[in-house]
């Protein structure tokens, strides 16, 4: 860092060195990137835990009307499990020292994730057709909230997937490997979150 900042004796501060306009070091550091992701997952875990706690407390009130969950949520669960396994396979390929084509595993993981999102929308449509609207009763509101919040974070993960795919397209396999390993951790985390959310909806409906 001393190569691109300097100490200003008059101000007593550390300031950018005008002789260097940008950081010339490595842009992707696997260890720091992994730590950053893990730090991001801590508040994310707290947020989902608060949603579950709110669900448990709200269902104690008298206006709670249980919502029968459509079978499409089981389908979406299977698709998310497959997506997580596909990312794990891609992660192992990215960790291997052998020259492996990472694109098939990435494509499969993305297709299964899109399938998960599609099945979630299908489940929402079924609930709407049955008369369970977002504002119909607190139970249905929580179903939409919990599944929608989870799906939103998966969409964010797909943006990282696009980054890995773009890196491969530019001929930057090392950068792609870093992103793939991070995506695998993120997908495993979201799989666990969904299993908890789905379990709560099933058992405490």
Quick gist of this model?
This protein is about 70% helix and about 5% strand. It has about 200 residues and is mostly helical. Helix 3 (about 105-130) packs antiparallel against helix 4 (about 140-170).
Structural description of this entry:
With 205 residues, the protein is mainly α. It has a single domain (28-203), classed as Cytochrome c oxidase, subunit III, four-helix bundle (Four Helix Bundle (Hemerythrin (Met), subunit A)), CATH 1.20.120. The protein is built from 5 helices and 2 strands. Strands 1-2 form a two-stranded antiparallel sheet. Strand 1 and strand 2 form a beta hairpin. It is elongated, with a radius of gyration of 22 Å.
Record keyword descriptors for this entry:
205 residues; Four Helix Bundle (Hemerythrin (Met), subunit A); two-stranded antiparallel ribbon; 2 strands
SSE blueprint:
Blueprint lengths: L4 E4 L4 E4 L13 H29 L13 H24 L7 H27 L8 H32 L3 H31 L2
Antiparallel strand pairs: 1-2
Side by side, the strands of the main sheet go: 1-2
In round numbers, the mean pLDDT is: 84
Order of helices and strands: EEHHHHH
The CATH topology annotation reads as Four Helix Bundle (Hemerythrin (Met), subunit A)
CATH architecture: Up-down Bundle
Strand content: under 5%
């Amino acid at each position: 860092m001393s190569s691109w900042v300097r100490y200003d004796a008059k101000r007593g501060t550390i300031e950018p060195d005008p002789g260097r306009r940008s950081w010339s070091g490595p842009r992707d550091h696997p260890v720091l990137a992994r730590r950053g992701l893990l730090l991001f997952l801590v508040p994310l875990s707290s947020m989902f835990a608060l949603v579950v706690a709110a669900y448990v407390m709200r269902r104690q009130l008298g206006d709670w009307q249980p919502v029968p969950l459509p079978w499409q949520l089981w389908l979406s669960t299977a698709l998310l499990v497959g997506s997580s396994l596909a990312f794990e396979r891609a992660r192992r390929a990215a960790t291997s020292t052998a020259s492996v084509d990472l694109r098939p595993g990435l494509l499969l993981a993305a297709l299964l994730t899109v399938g998960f999102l599609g099945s979630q929308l299908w489940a929402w449509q079924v609930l709407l057709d049955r008369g369970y609207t977002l504002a119909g009763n607190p139970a249905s509101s929580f179903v939409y909230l919990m599944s929608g919040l989870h799906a939103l974070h998966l969409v964010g993960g797909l943006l990282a997937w696009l980054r890995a795919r773009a890196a491969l397209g530019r001929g930057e396999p090392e950068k792609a490997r870093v992103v793939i390993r991070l995506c695998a951790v993120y997908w495993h985390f979201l799989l666990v979150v969904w299993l908890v959310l789905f379990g709560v909806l099933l058992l405490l409906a």
